[in-house]
Prior knowledge:
The structure holds 2 protein chains of 2 kinds. Chain A has helices spanning 8-35, 42-58, 63-86, 94-120, 146-168, 170-180, 182-187, 192-217, 227-240, 245-265, 274-288; strands at 125-126, 136-139, 142-145, 220-221. Chain A has 11 helices and 4 strands, in the order H-H-H-H-E-E-E-H-H-H-H-E-H-H-H. Chain A has a domain at 8-135 and 146-226. In chain A, a hairpin with a 2-residue loop joins strand 2 (136-139) and strand 3 (142-145). Chain B has a two-stranded antiparallel sheet. Chain B has helices spanning 3-23, 28-54, 61-76, 79-85, 91-94, 100-122, 127-147, 167-185, 188-198, 200-205, 210-236, 246-259, 264-285, 300-315, 328-340; strands spanning 288-290, 292-294. Chain B has 15 helices and 2 strands. Chain B has one domain. Classes of the chains: A mainly alpha, B mainly alpha. At the A-B interface, helix 4, helix 9 and helix 11 of A face helix 6, helix 7, helix 10, helix 12 and helix 14 of B.
Amino acid sequence: MTLGAVDAQNLVDALGQGAIYALMAVGIGLVFGVLRLVNFAYGQLVMGGAFAIAYASRAGWPTWAAILSCFGVVLGLSLAMELAVFRPLRTQSPAVMLVATFAVSFLLQSVALLVVLEVQGQLGVPAAAVAQLQQAVTIGGVDVRKVTIVSLVVAAVALGALALLLGRTTIGLQMRAAATDFTTARLLGVSANRVISIAVLLSGLIAAAVAVLLTARQPYVQNDFALLDTIVVLVGVVVGGIDRLWTATLGGFLIGFASGVINGALPTDKSAYLPTVLFSLVIVVLVIRPAGLFSRTGSSSVERV
Amino acid sequence: MKPSSLVQLAGPCALVALVGGVGSFTSIATAIYFETAIVSVAIVVALYVFVGNSGVLSFGQISFVAVGAYVAGIMTVPVGTKVGELPTAFPLLRDHSVGNATSFVLATAIGAVYALVAGVVLMRLSGLAAGIATLAVLEITNNVLTEWTRIGPGAGTLSSITETTGLLQASVGAIVVIAIAFAYQHTRYGRQLRATREDPAAAQAVGISVHRQRLWAFTLSGALSGFAGALYVHQIGTLTANQLYLEQTLLSLAMLVVGGAASLWGAVLGALAISGLDSFLGQAESGINVGFHLDLPTGTRLVAVGAIMAATLVLRPSGLTGGREFSLRWVVTLWRRRQVA
């Protein structure tokens, strides 16, 4: 068995993938921070946005309008999800909330399948509006797709803006307080609904950006769009450490980057085994550090009380 | 054991036997739905042994069902047929065949071993993280089963598996699984695990090892899942990797949650209810006649199951049974209420 070459080209692609997964991890981590809710349906927010772009490009809308409609759809879906699912379940245990979002995820996938089959008569819709991002530019002998550059820029800007928001504004302080101890934060006058709504909105904004980036990478949108990505990111978040936002984000980035590198390193006839290699690596990491790669304590066998 | 707790066992068993009995009076085509429902009971009760007793979510249990189904299915196909259908499989799998009963033993054993190996790693994580990390097991299993043609049909389908699971084998199998689940939750280990579900800190304070109890239950659940996988494959007669993947995970979790995840009775009731609904909607997607012609678009099935599951969690998070075990008083109350209404 010969390994494929891991070269600069590979590393650049892996960076792009890591950036997108880091964004998804932040989106999931933000809501987890204030609600202790792991949103399995995060990928279906992305799917909703991708379908918006696909249908906008079918209707011949210009790119900016397609992207705008993507943001509109994703934000609408996020708020609907918060009102219909998150809010009534707020007092439930994290396991109940996770299984509920798992149900919502399949509900949305099936609705998408129903609609697309009915309208289209086939399983998917091509999304041409952002396809020009697939083109490559050559930098120092390495072909870099524009989407990779855009992903890195978007991730850097979004994470920077988020860091400023969380670190320098009142609402950011309130969100951090709520993430540390929700009950005490409420006692001190933090409005629960406000903090949660803003976390959900921010998470939705990020999902919309991810939808644009992922659609540029895979311009054929089906109802399982972003499903596997979400599963990988969720596992990455656990590997990084789910309790803190920055460790979760780093976990998301690492698993995306690792996925890209492994994809390049596997010989072509073995590349179908990417998930096995990636998730086996995850298990090895969890053997060594069960509480997450970047945890302070090293081991915590039981939940915080 | 007190008589009242034996009633808790008798109730679910009697219900399964009743469903099996009613099914035996229907046509062969209809009996399949009864078989499917009873096999679902076995799968969901196996899932319940871990999820219900520990309160930790697992997406991984269906992979133990899958390996059980693969072993039981592949090992019962006659050697002569296998050389043609699985030419690239390992000689151990290709050139040997076992009987029906042995295939159940093999499936149970492989389910237990796989769950033990996965559990040793995953159960060290905190509850929520462990639940998410079980997705890794599901993904690995599905990926390997889909791609590796040395252990099975790969991306193809293995048909010609002997269909030994009729109503009798399904009912007996499901009752065995229920009885083991019941026995487990009345042992010292079962009770310790349920204590960690209610209050992990207090349970640890009285000297219960959360990790060890979860691992026990995970392994037992894996063994029962493997067994249920054997029941499943002998009922359905064909095998593809994607049959036992995310969709089946959703269905099984929906059954458990709708019935009430904290009780055995909930697992049984939820499995029968959702399986019945699922079969009906599956039929309706290809068009059936129920007084009028009903033809639902493809995808309705999962929309309904997902919606019912989400609605149950929002409106009645403890499920139909409210997490209580079967009791005669429950039946009497239900009966009186009906009389009043």
